[in-house]
């Protein structure tokens, strides 16, 4: 099948690539653009490990076509850290041991950031419900929730200090 | 996925043209049903027509007489839209019930309707909100009442080359309330064992409108017209509600499957109908 030219903004930088219409955004990110932070879990929208931000909205990139990203803005886990400085969520996940095998982690990080960007102080119930679209088979979730709570607190304190 | 062509028209006419003469072409809105079906090999298509570049399909606007909801507006925008939350709170609620957070970023109420699943959470509510679907196709624009839109499991009333443009929801009258209740075995992200949508208007102590529709208990979402006849003209009371709930239970045609036996579903129809009616009539 003939490839289509796609240009989009990826983690703040313009990128161009060729995609077959039947390639998912996830495949384009990993196989064409070589950003392998975004993981494929179930491949049908249930597990959330492929979560990215598309025009500021949290989506599962396995259920988005690469060609749909034409002219759009995409943010992946690779865009979270500032240089060598980890995002507070990334640091909190390490500090709270909120991962074991790590396959689900990029999806959790992107999804949790989407929540904290709009709700700086979510309740535990809100965090659990928001992250219900992300599956983890290692941690039992509790450490993930604690990490998100800790990161939220740190981000709020950073903002107050400014 | 098997290879297909892709077009993203920017006007209704372009979309009609793209779909014309190609009955196997599929319309792409949020993709949470279509792309999952294509990936799973449950469906094939030579052409995907992405309708999300057409402004009409992505707009939410208040018009005189009601709300016009673009067919491809994702649930997250519906759930957070101030007009929807103020005037159609039950719609905002149901938009936050379908799938998880990331699915709501893509899945649309229009797609939920077109997918025509008997279990579609949004459809009973759309029926009780008296929503009207506006459809474009080779013969122009036509309207279909939402209760007539789903015709069989996975089959809708769209003709060849037709697609859903938007849904029109009449402005709620004073005293109007709507509510959707579903039973699922866990707290979120599950398919309804039974879903019940109800609406009613109470004016001067008398019920002036009442509608009830069921999900997951028939081949299509089921509009129970007998409930309207039974309630309109009465005063809200526990007896009236119990009578209407019994009618809903009697109208259900459930099957037994992995989610629940038929008798259990029928029982739930009565229980949920009573609770939902109580919520709008109390």
Write a brief structural summary.
By secondary structure, chain A is of the alpha+beta class. Chain A has five helices and five strands.
Would you mind describing this structure in some detail?
The complex is a heterodimer of chains A (162) and B (282). Chain A has helices spanning 25-32, 88-95, 105-118, 124-130, 142-161; strands at 4-10, 13-19, 51-54, 57-60, 73-75. Chain A is of the alpha+beta class and 162 residues long. The N and C termini of chain A lie far apart (53 Å). The mean pLDDT of chain A is 97. With 282 residues, chain B is α+β, with helices and mostly antiparallel strands. Chain B is 33% helix and 26% strand. Chain B has helices spanning 12-19, 34-39, 75-80, 82-87, 89-95, 101-104, 109-115, 122-128, 225-231, 238-251, 262-281; strands spanning 5-7, 26-28, 47-50, 60-63, 66-70, 132-137, 140-145, 150-152, 155-156, 163-170, 176-183, 194-203, 206-215, 222-223. In chain B, helix 9 (225-231) packs antiparallel against helix 10 and helix 10 (238-251) packs antiparallel against helix 11. The model of chain B has no long low-confidence stretch (mean pLDDT 97). The A-B interface holds A 1, 4, 20-22, 24, 43-45, 48, 51, 54, 57-60, 62-65, 67-68, 70, 111, 114-115, 129-134 and B 1-6, 8, 28, 30-32, 35-36, 38-40, 48, 50, 52, 74, 76, 99-103, 105-106, 187-189.
Detail the topology: elements first, then pairings.
The complex is a heterodimer of chains A (162) and B (282).
Chain A: E1 4-10, E2 13-19, H1 25-32, E3 51-54, E4 57-60, E5 73-75, H2 88-95, H3 105-118, H4 124-130, H5 142-161
Parallel strand pairs in A: 1-5
Antiparallel strand pairs in A: 1-2, 3-4, 3-5
Chain B: E1 5-7, H1 12-19, E2 26-28, H2 34-39, E3 47-50, E4 60-63, E5 66-70, H3 75-80, H4 82-87, H5 89-95, H6 101-104, H7 109-115, H8 122-128, E6 132-137, E7 140-145, E8 150-152, E9 155-156, E10 163-170, E11 176-183, E12 194-203, E13 206-215, E14 222-223, H9 225-231, H10 238-251, H11 262-281
Parallel strand pairs in B: 1-3, 2-3
Antiparallel strand pairs in B: 4-5, 5-10, 6-7, 6-10, 8-9, 11-12, 12-13, 13-14
